[in-house]
Design goal:
Layout lengths: L20 E5 L8 E4 L5 E5 L3 E6 L5 E6 L16 E4 L5 E6 L13 E7 L5 E7 L10 H9 L4 E5 L5 E6 L10 E6 L2 E2 L11 E3 L5 E4 L2 E4 L4 E5 L9 E4 L6 E5 L1 E6 L5 E5 L2 E6 L5 E7 L5 E8 L4 E2 L4 E2 L7 E5 L5 E6 L2 E6 L5 E5 L8 E2 L4 E6 L7 E6 L4 E4 L13 E9 L2 E7 L5 E7 L5 E3 L9 E6 L5 E6 L3 E6 L4 E6 L4 E6 L5 E6 L3 E6 L4 E10 L2 E5 L5 E3 L7 E5 L2 E3 L1 H8 L2 H8 L4 H17 L15 E4 L8 E2 L3 E9 L5 E8 L2 E2 L6 E2 L7 E9 L3 E11 L8 E7 L8 E7 L13 H13 L7 E7 L5 H6 L12 E7 L2 E3 L5 E3 L9 H4 L1 E2 H7 L7 E7 L11 E4 L9 E2 L1 E3 L1 E4 L9 H8 L10 E4 ...
Parallel strand pairs: 52-59, 60-61, 60-62, 62-66, 63-69, 66-71
Antiparallel strand pairs: 1-49, 2-3, 3-4, 4-5, 6-7, 7-8, 8-9, 10-11, 11-12, 12-13, 14-15, 15-16, 16-17, 18-19, 19-20, 20-21, 22-23, 23-24, 24-25, 24-26, 27-28, 28-29, 29-30, 31-32, 32-33, 33-34, 35-36, 36-37, 37-38, 39-40, 40-41, 41-42, 43-44, 44-45, 45-46, 46-47, 47-48, 49-50, 51-53, 53-57, ...
């Protein structure tokens, strides 16, 4: 047998890959057909024809992406295409197989080439020849997908021990690609576990686990134990606004105009696909359901942000899709297996149906004419030209305009502009010619004949007519320069849904089905940034240098990898979350804005007591190791976990160990002191109480110099614990004082109303309450409230509510009113804010909230405010503030000071007690109460949001903490006309739990 020496070439992005810290955002839907579970259940792998991805078994986080630089998308190319993947016995490597059998129904050959790739480094070893077939192609998904299309109804695959099965069912009447997936155990089908677009599955060698379509199922526990943490949204379109360099992307539920630093959003529920007009002025988009069945088509004017005319109703069960929109936005063109259709956008009415035209080469030649391939006459077919106004359909012979060879046939035709077409032709085996044709002047540019099979499926032309971009086989974009006659290739490593030139022709934006939109520099051919939409109004933008900017909600999709070790977003967020550098790299935002973002970043570091120099990779750090990590099961059937820790430092003695579960410090903010050991290394055994459900446990060690180690973590799913948590509710209402002129009417009522409302919550097993009002509210009584929480366990929840005055002393330190407070000297008997925080520190429950309805309850940056005369309006509204009044110092940032900008841009990484603290007003603002609300405004909105379920923003029947935060911010601001805006002093991004 002749040995094959052609190896799979790998693209290695960074030198010393195993030592580089890599920012990871696990993107969305992909085209993976093959998958595997590692022998020791440490990793799972997915692979398509372009890349393999390795994922952590316990957390579902992406560990490594291995990209093949071959172009394996052509159905005509059989060589060097990966078609199977497996792991080494020690879980350190993956093996990529090339069986040389891609056609449906073919069996694997007797030999296969294998390349071993290190998971830690991503570097390939030598390719070897295996004399045994890897597996039969009949069990590989290439064949199965064709079976799905042919309307087979059910596919069932047994585990190695034959006891369990994974079942796929095709429920579509016309053989659509969307399936239902089930687990069959003891002959009984589970509920539907998902709706995949293709069949891929792998069982563990012991038959306990199944990895299928992005989730891991445990047959022993009979449930999903992990789902890959990947962005679920596909960008269905992209482009630049007419005559500008302002880019936009279209993803699920919204069109985003990235006029950075400002972002404008156009809500588009259930957006399924989109096409932009060639002039960039209009966007046509379709809405649909999970079956990828389009229901309606819309056209929107991107300049006015208004929809054009009426929606177009698509035909059911035809998979009718938008193909083009005219440059004037008046007409819509669709394609389906049952022909092409033209619609009037103003009326939504059908103008013409061409059942004989079913090729993707249909497009608007100009605002009144459409071209089609007549497939009824066979290959190469006849090109027709239909005029909407005259209703004439006549032959359009462009073959005479092209220097075609004797056997050269047109296989693809797309419009570049109203007078330019791009034509690709079959010129022999593996040879494609691409022509750029000006149909008015008959001028032709011919690209060099390719040696690969490349089909220009779509194409665009720059405004100056010099650059032409075309889709090369689905995953590359070729950009042809008519002046230099050279073509650069932009390798996307995922399937392309759309792309467009900027107005000045210097940049290109592409949208990919893996969830990203890529922004390219056409001078260098290099990627500038990737934009990822993670949900409505949530996004991440990353650069190849690993820097990123994101909304707070999108931070849950960010993590870091060094070697094959995973770290949470908080570990390196301080270094790599750099909006200033991202905007600078993208060339967006003026110098003033970028400087403001940098100042906000520096302010954040200062709050964390760090400097930029302290974030250097060369900083001496202590180390921490979980010595028994390999023995820890991801499923824990006991409520405790035993951990063996080793901590060490090469230079300084060790100071303390910190441990968190879901970002809550188990041993308080001070951790476990080991300073008395006077040691450079130390080993200890710990027993940790778990909560029911997911426990993300993190460990770090600090040395006496204050340097903290990278955090090591273990994630386990605990099956023990209460079915319903108990609620421990502490309510404080401070409204009556020795100095009676400062009495409040509704503070004590607020506390009692909150107690009454939450005591009726049936989501808890029991509700334990403790209330202090008026004269009972003393500093000592408040401190003693902590004793009330001693009986709470890990699974319980704690809510601490305070209503009263917020007071600043002359040093701008913050106090809350007590019944015996001296408002001229609040530090004497007032309640320091830290006392409330301390109540929630070092207690067993992980889920805890502090709600403060008082003036100045948000954080104050003393450097950015100044003492001033009170500016409270006299409007019959009482303000919960006395003492020092403050105002914002003059700043070139205007009203948005650095501290506020920091809160907007960055997640607060100070873990503190692990509680989320929701303040009724900003640090410079007053909190209101009024007879109009018969409560404090903040409390009024809180009660109404729960009672009327208006805080259930997604209407799923439950109110989550994150929804309550968003609701309070909006409602309080609206009712106060922006004078009072709730904020979060600190928040636990890992603890979003049900409140009501």
């Amino acid at each position: 047998m002749k040995k094959i020496f052609t190896v799979i070439t790998l693209l290695v992005f960074l030198k010393n890959y195993s030592q580089q810290i890599n920012t990871m955002i696990s993107s969305g839907w992909d085209m993976s057909l093959y998958c595997a579970i590692s022998p020791n259940n440490k990793y799972v792998a997915k692979m398509d024809k372009m890349k393999a991805t390795i994922w952590d078994f316990k957390t579902g986080r992406l560990v490594r992406e291995i990209i093949f630089t071959t172009t394996p998308l052509s159905n005509y190319v059989k060589e060097n295409v990966p078609d199977s993947i497996s792991f080494s016995s020690n879980d350190n490597s993956v093996f990529i197989y090339k069986c040389g059998a891609l056609y449906p129904g073919e069996n694997a050959t007797k030999s296969a080439t294998i390349t071993e790739i290190s998971i830690e480094t991503g570097i390939a070893g030598k390719e070897e020849l295996n004399l045994k077939p890897v597996r039969n192609i009949d069990s590989i998904n290439t064949n199965l997908i064709l079976k799905v299309i042919s309307s087979n109804k059910e596919f069932s695959y047994s585990s190695p021990n034959g006891k369990n099965e994974v079942v796929y069912q095709n429920t579509s009447a016309d053989g659509g690609l969307i399936l239902n997936i089930y687990i069959k155990k003891n002959g009984v089908l589970s509920k539907v576990l998902g709706h995949p677009m293709c069949i891929n599955y792998a069982f563990s060698s012991d038959s306990r686990y199944l990895f299928a379509n992005g989730f891991i199922y445990d047959f022993l526990l009979d449930k999903k134990i992990c789902e890959l943490k990947s962005v679920p949204f596909i960008p269905f379109g992209c482009g630049f606004l007419n005559n500008s360099n302002t880019l936009y992307t279209a993803a699920k539920d919204e069109i985003i105009i990235w006029d950075l630093p400002d972002i404008k959003r156009l809500k588009t529920p259930d957006l399924l696909s989109s096409i932009n007009s060639n002039n960039g002025e209009y966007l046509a988009y379709a809405t649909g359901d999970l079956q990828y069945e389009s229901k309606q088509g819309y056209v929107i004017n991107l300049i006015t942000k208004e929809k054009v005319g009426k929606p177009v109703q698509f035909h059911p069960n035809e998979f009718e899709q938008i193909k083009d929109v005219s440059d004037d936005g008046k007409y819509l063109l669709t394609i389906s297996p049952k022909g092409n259709r033209i619609y009037n956008c103003a009326t939504g009415e059908l103008i013409r149906h061409f059942p004989e035209y079913r090729m993707n080469t249909a497009f608007f030649l100009n605002n009144s004419e459409v071209t089609n391939y007549d497939v009824s006459k066979g290959t190469p077919g006849e090109i027709m030209r239909y005029n909407i106004f005259t209703d004439k359909n006549e032959p359009f012979d462009i073959k005479e305009m092209l220097p075609l060879g004797k056997h050269e046939a047109i296989i693809s035709l797309t419009r570049l502009k109203k007078d330019h077409l791009l034509v690709s032709t079959w010129a022999g085996e593996k040879k494609i010619n691409i022509y750029i044709l000006n149909i008015e002047t008959k001028d032709v540019d011919k690209l060099t004949t390719t040696t690969e099979l490349i089909v220009a499926e779509s194409s665009k032309m720059s405004k100056d007519n010099n650059l032409v971009a075309f889709n090369m086989g689905g995953t590359k974009i070729g950009v042809f320069n008519k002046k230099t006659k050279k073509t650069i290739e932009l390798n996307q490593f995922s399937y392309i849904s759309n792309f467009a030139f900027s107005s000045d022709g210097k940049h290109l934006i592409s949208s990919l089905v893996d969830g990203t939109s890529k922004y390219w520099d056409l001078e260098t051919g290099k990627e500038i940034a990737s934009i990822i939409s993670t949900g409505y109004q949530e996004y991440v933008i990353t650069t190849p240098e690993q820097y990123y900017m994101s909304t707070k909600g999108a931070a849950e999709y960010v993590h870091f990898v060094k070697g094959n070790n995973l770290y949470g977003v908080e570990q390196f967020d301080l270094k790599y979350n750099r909006p200033d550098l991202v905007l600078k790299k993208m060339g967006l935002g003026n110098e003033k804005v970028i400087e403001a973002y940098h100042k906000a970043y520096l302010k954040r570091l200062k709050k964390m007591k760090l400097t930029e120099d302290m974030l250097s990779d060369e900083l001496n750090l202590p180390e921490i190791k979980i010595k028994n990590s390999e023995q820890i099961s991801s499923i824990q059937n006991e409520s405790v976990l035993k951990i063996n820790l080793e901590v060490l430092d090469k230079k300084y003695n060790l100071d303390r160990i910190n441990i968190w579960i879901n970002d809550v410090a188990l041993y308080g903010t001070k951790g476990i002191s080991i300073k008395s050991k006077n040691a450079l290394n130390y080993e200890t055994d710990l027993t940790i109480d778990l909560k029911k459900g997911i426990n993300n446990i993190q460990f770090s060690v600090l040395n006496i110099a204050g340097a903290e180690s990278y955090k090591e973590s273990v994630t386990v799913n605990c099956t023990k614990g209460k079915e319903k948590p108990d609620l421990y509710l502490l309510c404080i209402g401070s409204g009556e004082f020795i100095q009676k002129e400062f009495n409040l009417t509704y503070a004590s009522k607020d506390a009692m109303d909150i107690k009454q409302m939450l005591s009726t919550n049936k989501n808890y097993g029991r509700v334990y309450t403790k209330t202090l009002t008026n004269k009972e509210v003393t500093k000592n009584n408040v401190i003693l409230l902590k004793d009330f929480l001693k009986t709470a366990d890990r699974n319980d929840e704690v809510i601490l509510f305070y209503a009263g005055h917020g007071v600043l002393d002359k040093d701008l330190d913050y106090y809350l009113s007590s019944g015996d407070i001296d408002f001229t000297n609040p530090s004497a008997k007032g309640i320091p804010y830290e006392v409330l925080e301390n109540i929630l520190d070092s207690i067993a429950p992980l889920k805890k909230i502090l709600l403060i309805d008082a003036c100045h309850s948000g954080e104050i940056d003393k450097e950015e405010v100044q003492v001033t005369a009170s500016d409270k309006p006299n409007s019959g509204i009482t303000f919960r503030n006395v003492g020092t009044a403050i105002a914002q110092k003059d700043s070139y940032l205007g009203l948005e000071n650095t501290s506020e900008l920091t809160k907007t841009l960055f997640t607060d990484l100070r873990k503190g007690t692990g509680a989320t603290v929701i303040s009724s007003a900003g640090g410079k603002e007053y909190a209101m109460e009024s007879g109009q609300w018969k409560n404090g405004l903040f409390t009024y909105c809180l009660l109404r949001g729960l009672k009327d379920n208006t805080a259930d923003l997604n209407k799923d029947g439950q109110i989550m903490l994150s929804e309550l935060q968003q609701y309070l911010t909006t409602e309080v601001s609206n009712l106060s006309n922006g004078a009072q805006q709730p904020t979060s002093r600190i928040e636990n991004i890992s603890a979003d739990f049900r409140i009501w």
